[in-house]
Amino acid sequence: MIVRQRTNWLKMLFIWRGSVLKKIVVQLIVILVFSLSIYYFKGKIFDYKVHLNPTIFTLIGLALAIFMGFCNSASYDRFWEGRKLWGLLVIESRSLTRQILSLVNDSSPEEKEKIIRMISAFGWSLNYQLRDKSGTEHLARLLSPEQAEQLKDKKFIPSLILGFIADWLNEQQKKGNIDTIVMTSMDHQLNQFSNISGGCERIHNTPLPFAYSVLLHRTVYLYCFWLPFGLVDTLDWMMPLIVLLISYTFIALDAIIQEIGEPFGEEENDLALNTICRTIEYSIFEQAGILQDELKKPDTYFID
């Protein structure tokens, strides 16, 4: 995901990174060439003049805009819910780390470092599960060799790491390092981790209904390809440019809807999961005073 400060209006016109223009430039070129050919032949196909009243496109465009607004809202809701879940993960990771550092008695710093590394490993494992990647380099770095071995060829790794954390807490309770009240509070934290994982999986595994995507996609392109016939007689030589502008608006919004509707991907406008994971790790390691030579401090503005 690209996060950058808003620049002046002139630079905004020429920004390439983060724009969906590079994904739709071929479609726009095809529509421009098609519009130029319609202008050249004055709206005729094999000597047959195609008569389309511009009013028709006004009505269709209004209906299309309303439908695209609905789909855009649905996609952004998915994007924002995913961001809230990952924001909650940051908060809960720091809270659980604070409780471990301040409320777990008589436990050695090495033991506490193990559990804090497991908390960081949970975030990385959820990240890579949502992106259908293994992420073994982070698990090998943060977990013990025995734990990393247990996770080989497993599918729901975040749930297994939560099990490792729960086992550590149970062991500390048996040693008398955690009382019942503190244990209940930490168990609530683990339930929050589980809810976050389940919420992300729900978004990842339940995309927008395919029928919506197909209907929107077809309608946008049919509208754009029929539009030159309705405007050629009224706009004359300006018609290809106006059609290109209208097509850019509709096709770009269609591309944005598809992109943010899958917020856990690795496109430029998807959520910056790698940076969020680095933020979690850096902040909880800093709380615990763990050396962070292997980890670069996350930037405020970044390209994930």
Question: Which secondary structure elements does this structure contain, and how are they paired or packed?
Answer:
Elements: H1 9-13, H2 21-40, E1 44-45, E2 48-49, H3 54-103, H4 109-130, H5 136-142, H6 145-150, H7 157-174, H8 180-205, H9 210-235, H10 239-260, H11 273-288
How much of the polypeptide forms β-strand, as a percent range?
under 5%
Main-sheet strand order equals 1-2
Main beta sheet strand tally, sense and closure:
2 strands, antiparallel
Oligomer: single chain
| Uncertain segments | none
Q: Which structural class fits the helix and strand makeup?
A: mainly alpha
Question: What's the gist of this structure?
Answer:
This protein is mostly helical and 304 residues long. It has helices at 9-13, 21-40, 54-103, 109-130, 136-142, 145-150, 157-174, 180-205, 210-235, 239-260, 273-288; strands at 44-45, 48-49. The chain contains eleven helices and two strands; from the N terminus they run H-H-E-E-H-H-H-H-H-H-H-H-H.
Report on this structure:
The chain has helices at residues 9-13, 21-40, 54-103, 109-130, 136-142, 145-150, 157-174, 180-205, 210-235, 239-260, 273-288, and strands at 44-45, 48-49. The longest helix has 50 residues, at 54-103. It is mainly alpha-helical and 304 residues long. The mean pLDDT is 87.
Key descriptive features of the protein:
304 residues, mainly alpha, two-stranded antiparallel ribbon, 2 strands, 1% strand, elongated
